Amino acid sequence: MKKLKIVLTIFLLMFVSGGYSVLANTQSFIPNGGATSTNIYLPDQRKLISNANQFPYNTIVDIQGIFPNTKVGWIAQGTGVIIAPNVILTAGHVIYDKGQGGYLSKVQIYQANTNGTKGATSIASVTGLIPNGDWVSKDNASPNNYPLGADDLGLIVINNNKGLNTGWMGMTSNLSLNQAISLAGFPVDHRDQMWGMSGNVSQISNPLFSYSNISMYPGQSGSPVFNTGNNIVGINVVEASYLNPNPNGDNNKVPSSLASQYPNYGVQLTASNIN
Known about the structure:
It is an enzyme of class 3 (hydrolase). Its EC number is 3.4.21.-. GO terms for molecular function: serine-type peptidase activity. This protein is mostly beta strands. The chain has one domain: Thrombin, subunit H (Beta Barrel). The chain contains four helices and 22 strands. Strands 1, 5, 14, 15, 16, 17, 18, 19, 20 and 22 form a ten-stranded mixed beta sheet that branches. Strands 2, 3, 6, 7, 8, 11, 12 and 13 form an eight-stranded antiparallel beta sheet that branches. A two-stranded parallel ribbon has the order 4-21. A hairpin with an 8-residue loop joins strand 6 and strand 7. The longest helix has 9 residues. The radius of gyration is 17 Å and the shape is globular.
């Protein structure tokens, strides 16, 4: 992948009832100034997942908790996916963020109801948080900037075998340019609902790959990126910010003509990090 002068923004969103604000690691990764944003490609073709109780969407969960540096009354939110009876795969920064003080706590895990809305109660208690060691070491070394090249992955261990009820998607390291992929998660601009979109792989540069025709929003960090065979090929992690100040606050609305310049990114699943 060419070394573009882009700003990568972690997709984890902190929100408080009544309003939203992107807080987590919003400083420039490759500094060139400007505002950070989230890439919604116009026209916005994301869709509400209205069959969220069916596979594979029933394996996708909403993750909420608090970091040590989270403001009082605020909540950190991301997405994850069940990959074993009692294990959830997510982005490493959803559960460990040095810039936010370390590990996520008071973690709640929610499934979506049939109509795509988030369930009212947590489906499990969390017994373990396991961020990838590569992510932890690189995030510790660069807590104020997103460490491009890190395996931004993590596991959450829960206290029951929920996966035996939902099943789980497979995982694969097979990834190719233009491959058809889908992404689904819990974006906070559609609060407490699961939304998704399909598109294609744009570029591949281990450990990242990009997609410039799949829109997403904060809260979808950790969302699974999966192929047409319902095998997970990666985890959604960062974006190339669209730097176009707009008095209406719509910095995240990227014209289709510019989409290829401002892609969104996932971490590939490889033989090493799958195992």
